[in-house]
Amino acid sequence: MQYACSMCIVQIGEMISLLEDDFIRSHPEIPWRQIKGARNIYVHGYGELDLDEVWNTLTESVPLLKNQISELLVNFEGK
Fold it and tell me: How many domains does one find in the chain?
């Protein structure tokens, strides 16, 4: 289960790599670099995963990111 949770974070990082650079630059309020960095750590296993950090990411950072992305989508759909 722990590795499945980690894969969720990896998937988010993978999806971000599909975004256009202009879009990323136009939304500096979202921590794109940190998200990609977390993806790299989880994929390449630079040391052991800190399972407490995985849990904190899933319960704190991912919901915040979801809210930020939802707001972007609302603004995008409104245009």
Answer: 1
At 44, list the tokens: 């390449």
From residue 41, give the alpha-carbon distance in Å to each of 2, 23, 34.
15, 24, 10
* Active site (annotated) includes residue 27: no
Verify whether residue 44 is a known catalytic residue.
yes
From the candidates 25, 27, 33, 39, which is the catalytic residue? 39
Distance CA 47, CA 39 (A): 14
Residue 25's domain comprises 2-77
The one catalytic residue among 25, 27, 33, 44: 44
Residue-wise pLDDT for 51-68, tens only, equals 888 889 999 999 999 999
Q: Are the C-beta atoms of 69 and 29 separated by less than 8 Å?
A: no
Of the candidates 12, 63, 1, the one whose C-alpha atom is nearest the C-alpha of residue 41 is 12
Question: Which band of pLDDT confidence, cut at 50, 70 and 90, is reported for residue 46?
Answer: low
